[in-house]
Amino acid sequence: MAPAVPLALLALVALLAPGLGVAFPGCDYPVHLWCSSWEIAVACQVESRCANLSRPVAAPVELSLFYESLCPACREFLVQELFTTWLLLPDEVLSVTLVPYGNAEERNVSGKWDFQCQHGPEECLGNMIETCLMHEAKNFSTYFPIIFCLESGSSVTKNLEACLQVYAPQLDGGRIAACVQGDTGAALMHRNAQLTEALDPPHQYVPWIVINGKHTDELQAQAEASLLGLICHLYQGEKPKACGGSGAPKAPASCRR
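Predicted structure:
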């Protein structure tokens, strides 16, 4: 049995479309069905009057960051924009993928992958450490604070143990080191190379930011200027507090003495 339609809604129909049962173009449903599903309510522009319906859960905004561990601009974006935005927003609003490789090059030497990085061997090691860390930790909320710790610290390649002690003491640094030095790390870095080479359009610089599968100069500029503002704008669900949604503190109307 379809839910009852509020009297106020019926009055609105009578005013807007007497005798038709349809108030708006694109609404091909009889009045008694308007509140039977969210899709129909949207089509008939009566969402606010259907108290029995809950807004469907929106998909998170998906952000992929293609970067290099020692690139100054990459480190600045990751530390100052991406990490702080991630801290402020719930998981259902923002989903992040990190791909450390950037402008590196790879070649197959006697069946083994060899990598040349823009900022030298130290950067290749940093890329590998972060890649193996992600592989071992699995969970984004576990490894991202450690990567933040590495990228914001004095040395990306020498502070792993210290960062692990602070953010994830349960992780085994020895396993990460074994990954870095072995075939697993090389295979994982080769995968990062493939993901980077598959970018469309091809990346021209790093950090290279892809949002919901798209990269444009405009999106890149907006993300670098205010990532939080961009994600809040793009998210289609109910805005969280950090975006000024319901429950956010309101600015005072005056400054009292």
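Summary: Confidence is low (pLDDT under 50) at residues 10-22, 247-257.
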